[in-house]
Write a structure and sequence with these properties.
The protein has 195 residues and is an alpha+beta fold. The chain is built from two helices and ten strands, in the order ααββββββββββ. A hairpin with a 6-residue loop joins strand 3 (76-89) and strand 4.
């Protein structure tokens, strides 16, 4: 019953957090502390909001990620992640604005020395705006992947390896495409350092 109540409270709080005009990590931390008061001490979960951005001449990109992680067993947890991405390429007539949102579920098995994850992500039709045309709805994308995370140097360094298969269905796209569906296989390598 407590897990159901906790999930219901989270479902009520998450939209409020994502609708805030300014993404503020302290709001997320307060919400997590408030939810912790109503959960069992055995229920380990976390709620994190991450904002990444890059900006240089002619380009702006922002990514927001709201992640909820729930430990199911000592070596197994599940993450539900909502991504919101937006970007601007500003080159006069060739300017583009892109917006997308993604929903992802990842199950992690943690051995202590490394983590293995299985993921499923859906990116509904993201939209692209260009000055010479209306808003373009791109095809829906779904991906399945396997991740391996290996921490180094007292967990300050993290190497992530990923193998993903992404597919697109053109049924709901706003443009007539010569293909009905497509697939793409990807290998990702990420190295992160915590300061």
């Amino acid at each position: 019953m407590r897990r159901f109540t906790q999930a219901l409270l989270l479902a009520c709080i998450c939209p409020c957090i994502t609708m805030a005009s300014v993404a503020n990590a302290s709001v997320v931390e307060k919400a997590q502390q408030w939810l912790n008061k109503y959960s069992d001490s055995d229920d380990t979960f976390s709620l994190t909001l991450t904002k990444n951005k890059i900006k240089f001449k002619g380009c702006k990109q922002k990514q927001y990620q709201l992640a909820f992680s729930q430990r199911i067993a000592p070596m197994f947890n599940i993450e539900a992640i909502v991504h919101y991405n937006k970007g601007l390429l500003d080159y006069g007539v060739l300017s583009q604005r892109v917006k997308s949102h993604e929903f992802e579920v990842v199950s992690w098995w943690d051995s202590g020395n490394y983590r293995v994850g299985l993921s499923h992500k859906v990116r509904p039709r993201h939209e692209m705006s260009v000055p010479v045309a209306d808003t373009i709805q791109l095809p829906t994308s779904t991906s399945a992947g396997v991740y391996l995370e290996i921490p180094f140097k007292e967990n300050k360094h993290l190497l992530t390896l990923g193998a993903l298969r992404e597919s697109w269905e053109s049924d709901g796209a706003s443009l007539q495409l010569p293909w009905r569906s497509s697939r793409d296989n990807q290998v990702k390598v990420q190295y992160a350092i915590t300061f």
